[in-house]
Write a structure and sequence with these properties.
Layout (H helix, E strand, L loop, with lengths): L19 E15 L5 E11 L6 E5 L2 H15 L3 E11 L7 H7 L7 E2 L2
Parallel strand pairs: 1-4
Antiparallel strand pairs: 1-2, 2-3, 4-5
Length: 117
């Protein structure tokens, strides 16, 4: 009895999937409030989402680094075979004698321009 040849499967790497580009908007808002002892309490809120795609997400935190990490993790989960280009905007209460952008840099929080998986 003759045996049929088995199909051959290639272990060669698959062709890379072309990455499409998406744009996302991320808005950071700094809020400063004074308590009875004249101590300033700072909190941050953010709203972000893929442009022209899904409804935005909004979240707040007193820790800007943690908030930015949440934004990036959320966008990474949506970046399947995509490169997401981020446009950051800022609003709210600037610190005395400086800007919100300078405060973010002083805090050592990086705001990347792209997110990929």
């Amino acid at each position: 009895m003759a045996t049929r040849p088995r199909p051959q499967f290639s272990l060669a790497a698959r062709a890379p999937v072309a990455r499409r580009e998406q744009l996302a908007d991320a808005q950071l808002c700094r809020t400063a409030t004074r308590d009875d002892r004249d101590t300033v309490r700072v909190s941050w809120t953010a709203e972000w989402g893929i442009r022209d795609d899904s409804p935005g997400v909004e979240q707040g935190s007193e820790n800007l680094g943690e908030l930015v990490a949440v934004i990036l993790d959320d966008l990474r989960s949506r970046a399947c075979h995509s490169i997401i280009r981020l446009e950051w905007t800022f609003e709210g209460d600037p610190p005395e004698k400086t800007t919100i952008e300078n405060e973010i840099a002083r805090l050592g929080v990086a705001l990347p321009a792209t997110v990929t998986t």
